[in-house]
Every structure is written in structure tokens, then in C-alpha cells.
Amino acid sequence: xxxxxxxxxxxxxxxxxxxxxxxxxxxxxxxxxxxxxxxxxxxxxxxxxxxxxxxxxxxxxxxxxxxxxxxxxxxxxxxxxxxxxxxxxxxxxxxxxxxxxxxxxxxxxxxxxxxxxxxxxxxxxxxxxxxxxxxxxxxxxxxxxxxxxxxxxxxxxxxxxxxxxxxxxxxxxxxxxxxxxxxxxxxxxxxxxxxxxxxxxxxxxxxxxxxxxxxxxxxxxxxxxxxxxxxxxxxxxxxxxxxxxxxxxxxxxxxxxxx
Amino acid sequence: xxxxxxxxxxxxxxxxxxxxxxxxxxxxxxxxxxxxxxxxxxxxxxxxxxxxxxxxxxxxxxxxxxxxxxxxxxxxxxxxxxxxxxxxxxxxxxxxxxxxxxxxxxxxxxxxxxxxxxxxxxxxxxxxxxxxxxxxxxxxxxxxxxxxxxxxxxxxxxxxxxxxxxxxxxxxxxxxxxxxxxxxxxxxxxxxxxxxxxxxxxxxxxxxxxxxxxx
Lengths: 259, 215
Known about the structure:
The structure holds two protein chains of two kinds.
Chain A: E1 5-13, E2 16-21, E3 24-30, H1 32-41, E4 47-51, H2 54-57, H3 63-72, E5 77-80, H4 86-95, E6 99-102, H5 104-108, H6 111-120, E7 125-133, E8 145-149, E9 154-159, H7 160-170, E10 174-179, H8 191-200, E11 205-208, H9 214-222, E12 227-230, H10 232-235, H11 241-250
Parallel strand pairs in A: 1-4, 1-12, 4-5, 5-6, 6-7, 7-10, 10-11, 11-12
Antiparallel strand pairs in A: 1-2, 2-3, 7-8, 8-9
Helix pairs in contact in A: 1-3, 3-4, 7-8, 9-11
Chain B: E1 2-6, H1 13-22, E2 26-30, H2 33-38, E3 41-44, H3 50-59, H4 63-73, E4 77-80, H5 82-85, E5 90-91, E6 106-109, E7 120-128, E8 138-144, E9 146-147, E10 159-166, E11 168-176, E12 181-184, H6 192-211
Parallel strand pairs in B: 1-2, 1-3, 3-4, 4-12, 5-6
Antiparallel strand pairs in B: 6-9, 7-8, 7-10, 10-11, 11-12
């Protein structure tokens, strides 16, 4: 039986780990290679690297950082940020990514998902969805959240749950689902959002945005997610991956405890 | 030791190269049948589709046969994920495409079951048969939608399997020639300390074979 995964996320800008609140107000949180090695040693099940500056500033992706992290990292690495074409993904895989995550570019041009899955396999194709709760449903079939892109600056009006389902039909092998409202706030994952998306797709869903405690992670796993992603709580050394996993195990979740 | 790593075009090659370097192996990428015949160690990684992988192997004269020959004769080979799958006869993923046929049987999609998410993505526990030398029990990392199911398969003579379950039981890996040939559905290069120890045992099994006077 698969264990539930705990996945630290490194937001990277100019070769440094950064963290903000709702994608803004970024502050320095360390060296990516040191962070990656530390998290693997603590028992992280995977690592995600997101080049957070790539989309707004049109920057080239962080292949150099990926290569440096890969040299020391013995667990899976998903990389996203600025992937707009198969060639971008190929460059990240060559640098050392195992999976590639697309976000804004897939909303702009959904065929990209099928192109990536066709070339690299669905196992390699992660679609990251940033979803914001909306006050009023705007269209029939709307399930309460809309997709936001360009690091939260663009509210697309697209129903997030429907978009997740479409991504899977196009070839996504995993959904990285971030609650825009909760990101960096430490107020807990948006479990209603998770429940809606997990109920709609058959691929694994990674819960992201808002984690501050083991209790929050238990809620996300109970809502159907296969993995929980967190950044702030690990970067600030309030807790370690190992502590979190022992807490999850005590709460009855099946997790891998590194010996 | 040098390892010829077959460039299948779609694999997470950099992760495999990095993991080999960490256990003291010097990897060289190749698509050349001669290099695959002669190298002390050969690795066949694979991410992508069965059909695409077989197309790459077929596009380079003698490459598929060189790999199959190494596996049959028990000479240092490590096949990973899709590299494991192409050793079988066929796959439901790419109907009509013939695999290398070193191992009997066919690769099929995970059977659907309530709550079972496909792809299988994450860490799962493998149970190696007592005869395994390189494969060891513990949690390793998988990323696959297709597998060789237990009900459809028995290890041929000279091969020892490791088992795992995602919904139903499937072949997590198989090894032959006293651990010198290892084929695994999971990713040792992504399986942390346990994966690194498997790579080290595989290298050691082959180093002993190379250095022993009887070999």
C-alpha cells in the first residue's frame, strides 16, 4: 500500500529559496541545495521546486539550480515555473527533474498537457492549479473556485474543479492543487476545495497552500489527497519533516519513516 | 567502474546519472550496441511509453538485441521502470508492439478499484523472494500506470522476483545471475538511502564477478 507523501516546496528566485504570502512579499529562505539535502535527510518523500519569478518576469527557468540540487538529491524532484513548451520541459528533465509541472501555460494553451504527456508520459506531467474561492457562482456548473494564473495576478473565471478534470483527460498524471486564499497564511488547507477536486479525478492530488500543523495535514489527507506540500513551516525551522511524519503516523496515517 | 547508460530519449536520465555517481560509478550515455555489449555495467532507464521506448531501441541497429543478450547471459544490467517493462513480451499500453521478450508475460494497466489512484505515484513496500541478492525489502518509489500482475506471472527458472501491491499484487522487480542482472518497476535512483544501497549491491555483485578468476 502506498504511503502518504510529505513534500517540501522550494520557491526559487535568482537561485535562492524565497517565500511570500499569497505569492507576494518574497523573503529569503536559504540555499536550495542545502535545503534539498536537509529535507531528504529529514525523510521528505519528494521535493518540488517552483521558479516563482519565471512567469511574471518572463525569466528563463532555473535549470542551473535544478542541476545543483539533483547532484545531491536521491528522491523525486518536480520542477515548475516558466514551462511553456515541450522544449522547456526537456531542458528541466535534462537538468535533473523527474516530473515537470505546468500552470499558466496550460491554461493559456491546454494542448501543452497532451504534448508533455505524449513525449514524457503521464507520470512526468504534473499540472499545478492555483484556485481562489469566489464569493458568488457565476455560471451553471461552477463549483466555487476559479483558476488564477500569473502568480495570482490574473483571475481567469475558469471553474477550478472542472479544469482539474479536463487536465487529467488531457494527460496530467498528478494535480498540484494550491489554495490561493490559504497560500503562506498558515490557516490550514482548503479542504472543501480538496474534496471537490479529489472526488472528480482519479490521479493523485497534492494538497498545497496553508499548512501550519500536522492537524492541517491530517485534514488534507482525509479530504482525499495523496500528498501534502508545505513550505513555510519547514523553511522557518518551526518543525522538521521527520517530526511532521511522526505526528501523521500517530494520527493513523501511513507514512514512510526514514530509519 | 564505467556504466553505459542507454539514452532512451524520454527518461529522467539526469537522476539516474547522479545516483550512479553517488555510488562511485562513472556513467556514459550511449545508444550504441557495441558500447552496450562491451561496458562492464549497463543501465536501461525509462520514463515514457512502451511503444516509444521500443521505437528508440529499434532505431539503433543491434541495440535491443545487445540488451536482451546481456540479460539472458547474466551480464551486469540494471533496467528501471519502463526499462523493466520492455524486457517483457508486450504491453497493453502499446498494442502490437513487441518487447524484448527476455521475460515471459505482458504488462497491463492497474485494474481499477474504488479509491485506487493511477498512476501509482509514491513510496510502496516491496517484498523480495528469499533468493534475491540485490533487491531488498522496504519502501521504494514508484511512478507507473502499468504493471505485471501477480495472477499473470511466475518467475522463470533462474530469476527471483520481488512483489508489491497497489490494489492487486504486481511484480516490483526481478533479478537473475545472483543479483548481477536487476530489473525493477520502481526507481532505485529516486528511492533515497534504500535505493542507493540497492545500486551499491548491484555494482558490488558485478565487481566481484569481474574480478573473480573463474569469471
